Task: inverse folding
């Protein structure tokens, strides 16, 4: 009975490994149609989740705080700012000798496009009442859940890490510093710079920091379930540092 309960609870816990799905690509640069569609779907959901955090207006994730801060200081839209940040981060890969993939390039393009489009589509929550605050928090939570689901889908395609993840793991591999410490240092720096530029930091930022790890874990578990319970495989730090934070 105890073992049965333990197994049941384990099945409900977020995944800490990347499932070896049937659609996973064997190459970072070659992809079948279904794998490519899943990559785009996952990245679009990710960008939509980011847009929900922006629309909720109670605080964003660190990188979106930076992008939003850039829009305050420069004549840029949030989608363009997000894309430009990705390009700059990719340039920082060069001295680290990181290897991009199709997913790396699509990450920079699709997330920025989804964020730009969905910010213009999602309804704004107005007012300062308790109901408005509850609506904002719910929107932020839904956004984090979508980011987790999108991550769970696109990570299983095996088409390469996103620009920010690759930068973090590149620093980790060249310095020997723990991935979690590198990630914390980079995201704390990005958050402070974005806040100083005028980006929104608040309850949503705290919720993102606390919940994004479990959200990605459940996204991976759902991706495995959609593939009929795909078996887990060893985590590759080079591709999936968010699972090690």
Result:
């Amino acid at each position: 009975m105890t073992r049965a309960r333990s197994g049941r609870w384990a099945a409900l816990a977020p995944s800490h490994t990347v499932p070896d799905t049937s659609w996973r690509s064997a190459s970072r640069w070659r992809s079948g149609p279904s794998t490519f569609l899943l990559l785009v779907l996952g990245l679009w959901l990710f960008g939509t989740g980011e847009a929900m955090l922006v629309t909720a207006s109670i605080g964003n994730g660190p990188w979106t705080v930076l992008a939003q801060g850039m829009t305050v200081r420069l004549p840029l839209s949030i989608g363009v700012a997000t894309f430009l940040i990705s390009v700059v981060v990719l340039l920082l890969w060069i001295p680290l000798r990181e290897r991009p993939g199709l997913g790396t390039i699509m990450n920079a393009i699709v997330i920025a496009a989804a964020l730009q489009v969905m910010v213009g589509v999602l309804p704004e929550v107005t007012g300062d009442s308790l109901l408005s605050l509850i609506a904002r928090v719910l929107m932020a939570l839904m956004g984090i859940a979508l980011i987790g689901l999108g991550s769970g889908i696109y990570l299983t395609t095996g088409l390469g890490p996103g620009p920010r993840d690759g930068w973090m793991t590149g620093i980790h591999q060249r310095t020997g510093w723990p991935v979690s410490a590198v990630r914390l240092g980079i995201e704390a720096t990005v958050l402070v710079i974005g806040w100083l530029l005028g980006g929104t930091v608040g309850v949503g930022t705290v919720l993102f920091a606390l919940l994004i790890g479990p959200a990605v874990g459940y996204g991976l578990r759902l991706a495995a379930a959609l593939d009929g319970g795909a078996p887990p495989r060893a985590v590759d730090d080079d591709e999936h540092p968010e699972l090690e934070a």
The longest strand covers residues 18-19. The first helix runs from residue 2 to 12. The two ends are 33 Å apart (CA to CA). Residues 234-245 have pLDDT under 50 and may be disordered.
